[in-house]
Amino acid sequence: MKLGVLVSGNGTNLQALIDAQADGKLAPGELAIVISNNPEAPALARATAAKLPAEVVDHRGLERPEFEDRMLALLAAQGVEGVILAGFMRVLSPHFIERFPLRILNTHPSLLPAFPGRDAVGQALAHGVKVTGVTIHFVDTSLDGGPIIAQDPVPVFEGDDADRLHSRIQSAEHRLLPEVVQRLAAGKLSCQGRTVRRAE
Ligand code: GAR
Fold first, then answer.
1. Catalytic annotation on 108?
2. Which of 45, 53, 109, 200 holds its CA 20 to 30 A away from the CA of 192?
3. What is the domain extent for residue 56?
């Protein structure tokens, strides 16, 4: 399954996917293209270093349908069948999502349904939770509300600030995301209602 990765920022999750592919741990998944809505995203250099096509579709100045159509055209040109949102900070509309039914994954830095949306790590600290974590879920038209595929808990320690806590969460997501992507690509995820199962 050819995979497109959408990014907006640093790209450490993209790097985890690139490293997994280099180790033969993504097959039959194959990274085919990286698209950033942010021309300054360090993720773009990671893609280029890995010899992956790296494209920018800057959302600024574009209406959402055109922004999405440009990304859809780039994905289609590479024969992409599965899409990974790896720190992609734009909301996708049904127009995009319905092109990849149960074929779009997102990684989110909290144990959903707690703390959806922006600044999930800051939200968790402000709420005073003792455990937060990472969630990999299918993307549907809700905000961070699609069926949950996998979660890993991460403890919150006294004295944590957002950077320390986020870096601990990121260690967990860098382990979990490639595993889930491999399962998706291998056709090993099934979904009934909200319940995702690993099919052997
Ligand atoms: C990741 O921690 C990801 O979970 C989060 O952004 C970070 C991107 O890091 N995504 C969201 O908050 C989406 N709502 P990266 O660019 O280094 O992969």
1. yes
2. 109
3. 2-198
